[in-house]
Amino acid sequence: MRIDNQMCLEFASLPENIALSRVVVASFAAQLDFTLNDLEEIKVAASEAVSNAIIHGYQNRPDRLVRLRATRKGRTLELSVEDDGVGIADIELATKPSYSTDPERMGLGFAFMKSFMDRVEVKSEVDKGTTVTMTKTASLAAAKHVDKLC
Amino acid sequence: MRIDLSSRKDTLVVRVHGELDMVMADKFRHEVDREMDRRPVRNLVLNLQGVSFIDSSGVGAIIGRYKRIAREGGRVIITEVKPQVKRILEMSGMMKIVGMSASEAEALRKLGPVGNQEVAE
Lengths: 150, 121
Fold this sequence. Notes:
The complex is a heterodimer of chains A (150) and B (121).
Chain A: E1 5-12, H1 16-29, H2 36-57, E2 65-73, E3 76-83, H3 91-94, H4 108-116, E4 119-125, E5 129-137, H5 140-149
Antiparallel strand pairs in A: 1-2, 2-3, 3-5, 4-5
Helix pairs in contact in A: 1-2, 2-4
Chain B: E1 2-8, E2 11-20, H1 22-38, E3 43-54, H2 56-71, E4 76-79, H3 83-92, E5 99-101, H4 104-110
Parallel strand pairs in B: 2-3, 3-4, 4-5
Antiparallel strand pairs in B: 1-2
Helix pairs in contact in B: 1-2
């Protein structure tokens, strides 16, 4: 499908950049006809993916780079979060709702991403890195509403 | 981004202001644990009025403190939650284990008689 808009952001693997990535993603996503609720969900999904890149991919090392790409194709938003970190040996296990390497985190990160986005895809190679790609499509109802206004 | 702590007898009241992501969750965990190490804390009232965003890091930090309180037979009550934050708490299953109140005063009433004097800031 034709790309209508795209932005790429590369930032240091510092925890304070998680908030930055959320704001940027929400601002980009607001170009589509998402509801406020949708935008909140997209922010959570972006936050989880970037947190995972920093905590798991880079093992909290602050001197690496996380790449965030947001693409608008028609009514669909595609988000991609990429790191060059340690990678995931068993993607199926890592994305299970209860799986976590930290007892306090409870493995909710991927559960939230899957709940809030229409599609979540994880590509990873050990010692090479991980890319999480997520898509969400703005509802037709919202788009029709805009059509009626014009 | 700010965390205010105060005590009413053996209840620790925590007011969080900001976005409860990994950065804030670490601060929350550190400050609440330090207070609980410093004095006997039986119950925890968590006022989330100032929290506009939460993700799994924030949920994990709250559940970690809940486990510590519950181990000693205490209770955790969350108050004044914004709708978008409440949804995340519901999805995480946290609402099944912690109490919810509309206000701090109501939460303190639920926890039983408390002193009318703030002990520490």
